[in-house]
Amino acid sequence: MNELDAAGITGPALRSAYAECRRINAHHGRTFFLATRLLPARARPAAHALYGFARMADELVDNPSPGTDPAVALDKVVDLVDEVYDGGAPADPVLAALADTVRRYGIERGLVDAFLHSMRMDLTITEYATYADLAEYVHGSASVIGLQMLPVFGTVVPLADATPSAAALGEAFQLTNFLRDIGEDLDRGRLYLPTDELAAFGVDRALLVDSRRRRVPDPRVRRALAVAVSRNRAVYRRAEAGIPLLRPESRPCVRTAITLYEGILDEIEALDYDVLNRRAVVGKGRRLAVALPELVQVRLGAFRASGLTLRS
User: Fold this and answer.
1) 109-119, pLDDT tens digit by residue?
2) Which residues lie across from 155 on neighbouring strands?
């Protein structure tokens, strides 16, 4: 069944809005989009809408259109979010889909506000001294995404019981992004890996920039990143512990997303931590090898639930 039909989304304008979010997710979120294929069809549009909104705000900050002020652009998004939570129907397709998703799943305004706050932090803060200092940014930019998705996934326990692992899920993905994208972030003037943690290994921003410029790996950087990868894996374990708390039909999606995203850490290690000059990517073959068996099981489960039987 079509995802929009399964979700009961009617009306050409709203269907078009969700289709645009799906396009954004498919284009930009390869790993997340693949994992969403394992969700029940009725839940996929909401996942696309939440991703589409996050991507839209992130692009305003990271890749602003020439001649535009990202701070002003974010102010306009805040006004649109006000409209969303006041019961309006924004003309922008991404915000229109978000508004519908917010109403369907009761997504709290505070989670959206925290996300936009972290996006605004990127406009003025270029580095963090410690992981404690980084925590506010990670909460708003990532943990709240896991919390927004939690009502979409559904739980077999009270929602509050699953919030720590859902927050850890977003945190784990974001820490992996910081490691994978450290070179690109430096090019934007940002450094997310805490400076005190790096300094313990004799690493500072100047060394990172110089290593990227000269394309010469440094053993001090390698040691610092190895510790950061180990810390990141511990967060994945906290996120993984929450999978049994989700509705059974949502577990394959989250399990696959964790496996694939943690696979980026495997690729970083395979590159001997040379992520300043090379991008760690989980190849298409490995992505399919992980996702296809889960997809087959999901499809078989849906087939059996329909009451049909395979003819021998």
Assistant:
1) 999 999 999 99
2) 246
Rounded distance between C-alpha atoms, residue 148 and residue 57, angstroms: 15
Which amino acid is residue 21, in one-letter code? Answer: C
Alpha-carbon span 163 to 82, nearest angstrom: 25
Q: Determine what percent of the chain falls in helix, strand and coil, rounding each to the nearest 5.
A: 75, 0, 25
Tell me how long the chain is: 312
Asked if residues 212 and 186 have their Cβ atoms less than 8 Å apart, the reply is yes
Distance of alpha carbon 89 from alpha carbon 101, whole angstroms: 12
CA distance 92 to 123: 24
SS3 236: helix
- The answer to whether residues 155 and 247 touch, using CB atoms and an 8 Å cutoff, is yes
Q: What integer is the mean pLDDT of 231-260?
A: 96
Is there a contact between 153 and 165 (Cβ–Cβ < 8 Å)? no
Mean pLDDT of 53-75: 94
Angle between the 93-105 and 70-85 helix axes, to the nearest 10 degrees?
40
Residue 44, judged by CB atoms within 10 A of its CB (0-12, 13-18, 19+), counts as: buried
- Residue 196: CB atoms within 10 Å: 12
What pTM was computed for the model? 0.92
**Structure tokens given for 100:** 């519908």
